[in-house]
Amino acid sequence: MTLLRWVLSWLPRPLDPVRSIKAKLSVALGIAGGVGLLIFWWSLDWVRVELSWFAIAVALGLVTLQVMAHGATVPLREMTVAAKAMARGDYTRRVRATSRDEVGELAAAFNQMAADLAAADRQRRELIANVSHELRTPITALRGLLENIVDGVSSAEPETMRTALSQTERLGRLVTELLDLSRLDAGVVPLTPAPLDLRAFLDEVVREARVTADGAGHDVRFEVAVPEIRLTGDRERLHQLFANLLDNAARHSPPGGTVTVRAERHEDHVRIAVTDEGDGIPAADRERVFERFTRGERARHGGTGLGLAIAHWVVQLHGGTIAVVDPAVIPTPAPTADPGPTPAAVLGPAPTAGPGPAPTAGPGAAPTAGPGAAPTAGPGAAPRAGDGAAVRPGPGCHIHVTLPLAPA
Fold first, then answer.
1. How far apart are CA 219 and CA 377, in angstroms?
2. 186-191: which pairs have CB atoms within 8 A and are 24 or more residues apart?
3. Residue spans with biased composition (Low complexity) (predicted)?
4. pTM for this structure?
5. Residue 372 to residues 205, 246, 278, 343, 368: CA-CA distances in angstroms?
6. Closest by alpha carbon to 232, among 270, 184, 187, 203?
7. CB 49: neighbour CB atoms within 10 A?
8. Do 148 and 106 belong together in one domain?
9. Could you tell me if 274 and 261 are in contact, meaning their C-beta atoms sit under 8 angstroms apart?
10. How many CA atoms lie within 13 A of 185 on its CB side?
């Protein structure tokens, strides 16, 4: 087969100067048919044939060939017109692909390419619009604060400077996410796998998320139910993954709501569920939320639309999966901080027990958070549902992350 392909690659292309494929087909079939007729005629000892009948047969053959070849060449002409339109920025042109031959496959591939180019062009436009918006908002706020200070309208009080700092941090977060996105596209971010204690690791991420939420003014509470699990992964990238998920959950939770982190081991992988009590994500948008700059109906809570895209990228690097699942398939979480003999699985000095997959701390186990750790709930914590607070949790957003215990 290789030898045959090599021989065919060296065959001449005498019909390349012909500008029409139908003309090429006509010439090729005419020559092939002529050779066949000559051999047939020779086999009949050169029987005399009327020249007029021969001319009529050739003319009818050419007309038939033109009619039959019309459907084969129309998609090629349409592709030429569509390609020229794409060069001008019009990605709406499509080619009618009804045949099942190579031309039909080419037309189908062309339509797919046109759809991909249209999506890429839309994402490019959204990128410019969203980045411009995300940059303009904090810059406008900073400019207003600084102008007020310079004009003497307000003084550089701690509260004013904290507002300026939050806007600066927002700018820094956007720049960091854009840099991560560029590394994602370039594929220049190698993983540095190392053994991790999942419980201690998530405790650390949750403590940082609690501080971030408090600094941003989000009145939320964090609960953790993670058993003793060890896995191998890139600590920095996994920290980025769960920090994005927790920040996203905190921003979309109602005041006094709860963000729950649960983990379960399943044979050679671990499943981590991050749940909030917000409005949830419509089923139609659950696939798109992991695309860049997709914020959907939850965009009113802020964010760049890059966090979940980066989370999806990190999970893929580790050979895992991430998905927004329906609340109906989520097991009932452990009870919250209602009074009773069985407290919730909450970070803090209190022991944890409940119907979750594994206790956070129990007899003989190292406590999840010691006396020096920031407690999840304390005297200053936001009131919870069941404690007299008017909290009406929504269906919530339930995100499942599945990671292998060891890299493949």
1. 11
2. 189/237, 189/317, 191/233, 191/234, 191/237, 191/317, 191/318, 191/407
3. 361-393
4. 0.52
5. 16, 22, 31, 21, 11
6. 270
7. 12
8. no
9. yes
10. 6
Q: Could you tell me the CATH number of the domain that includes residue 140?
A: 1.10.287.130
| pLDDT band for position 122 (cuts 50, 70, 90) | confident
Distance between the two ends of the chain, CA-based, in angstroms?
37
Whether residue 312 is contained in a domain is answered as: yes
Say yes or no: 209 and 337 in one domain.
Answer: yes
Alpha-carbon distance 393 to 279, whole Å? 8
For residue 157, give its domain range: 130-186
Q: Which two tokens stand for residue 400?
A: 């499942």
243 contacts 379 by C-beta, under 8 angstroms:
no
As given in the structure block, the two tokens for residue 120 are: 């890429």
Burial category of 129 from C-beta neighbours within 10 Å (exposed 0-12, middle 13-18, buried 19 and up) = exposed
pLDDT band at 394 (very low <50, low <70, confident <90, very high): low
